[in-house]
Amino acid sequence: MNYPFVKPKFYLRLIKELTRFIFQPRYLILKDITVRNKVYHTLGLFLIKLVFSLLVANVLAIFYEPTNITDANMANRFTPLVYLLVGGVILPLYEEICFRLSLKFKPLYAALTFTSLSYYLLTKAIYKTNLSLVDETFYTRVLLSLFLGISAYALMYRVKIAQKLAVLWENNIRWIYYLSCVLFAWLHIFNFELNLTNVLLLPIITLPQLFSATIAGYTRLSFGFKYPLFVHMGTNLLFISLTFLPLD
């Protein structure tokens, strides 16, 4: 069988397509591509993302290496199996709903994104706790987020409003795509200690997340929601699994 993963030209073509898309995001592209090629493209981009993330992490570690307090916290609170489930499956699904699902507009998609973002902001900015922590504020955060999401859906479900929003989305997908990428990357600052150094280095220490977001947005708009979701899950599962390896 003809596998493209050993061909440098395959990766060069993917990088060119991704770069072209980043400079000129489009609402619908690659509509006629086969499922097999979608999978090949997605896996190829996953490998490119993996290499880039490792390269940036290693270069950054030479000068400065901030501690990811979220990962450390989850590793301490959960058993390995639960850590894999929460960090490798549940959180990627949550983040993809939060930042990628509504790149293609539907009232339900936008409402789910609004609900997820509300939960994120309530958790991090208001209650200053962890997304996965079931504490005394958990049900308050969930219920408030659901209320806001249902209210947004009730408003956007109206035909005239939905039609206007759909046109607005399609005409401004470039800025919506850029905003989703920056939000995804920069909100990861909450994974680190909020000190002056980390805040000043925010664009640098979140560079891997920004690159991941550009790829995820590209695959979501080009192929569908499940493709960036599986890449996100695969990345998290891989890196979480590596933390279980003995270092000695």
UniProtKB/TrEMBL annotation:
UniProt keyword annotation of Transcription present: no
UniProt keywords, alphabetically: Membrane, Transmembrane, Transmembrane helix
Domain of life: Bacteria
Membrane-crossing residue ranges in chain numbering: 39-63, 75-95, 107-126, 138-155, 175-192, 198-217, 229-247
Name used for this protein in its record: CAAX protease self-immunity
